[in-house]
Amino acid sequence: MKILGIIPARYASSRFPGKPLADMLGQTMIERVYYQVKKSKLLNQVVVATDDLRIYDHVISFGGNACLTASEHPSGTDRCFEALQKQKESFDFAVNIQGDEPFIDPRQIDLLCSSLIIETELATLIQKIATPEQLLSAGEAKVVINHRGEAIYFSRSPIPFVQKFEMKEWLNHTVFFRHVGLYAYRADVLKKITALPPSLLEKAESLEQLRWLENGFKIKTVETEMEESICIDTPEDLQKALIILKNHLPKN
What we know:
Blueprint: E1 3-9, E2 23-24, E3 27-28, H1 29-38, E4 45-50, H2 53-61, E5 66-68, H3 76-85, E6 93-96, H4 106-114, E7 122-128, H5 132-136, E8 142-145, E9 151-155, E10 177-186, H6 187-193, H7 200-205, H8 209-214, E11 219-223, H9 235-247
Parallel strand pairs: 1-4, 1-6, 4-5, 7-11
Antiparallel strand pairs: 2-3, 6-10, 7-10, 8-9, 8-10
């Protein structure tokens, strides 16, 4: 089984233009992400998929693998499909890895990859929710699963609803899961889901995985207990990440 790791990286960003090329103590963000992903033991190849020649040239300059994609893709999933199509060799699965997580743990990637079998259509990671803040945050996608570990539904609302108890007590009475944004797509399924029009539930929740569920695709979930890496969305996030980097530098 051959697995391609794809790192979508756009230059345009309303909150942080040029984010992939931001300097992080001598290395750009995309360079740090790329080298972290390359530590994966189960990916056969890694490629940065970008719509910007500056990012493409930069990745090539440090010895990375990159491909240019169209600028009008509505999501990272669509960019992943074009990148998969442009590879000279064929792959059974593609893994979509966020380009703004410079501390991503390659063991997370390998955990997801190790769960893949040829019957798998789509797969993603989930994690038990531990705090009321996570449970109530609209920025955290929650997921409920069936007894086979397949996703039934994703929502920005706390799900399931725990009847007869106040919300502050819910964590004491059932298990809640949050979605960790790492996807694996079987190659033929990736082609199919990118041809689907946006769905009603997807529009309501602003979660593209609901489009796949609405159209009958199965999303396998894999539970992880590893700490999720920091996502850099804003310049303020970058400053926090730089503090972490500085604290982990070797002491003289």
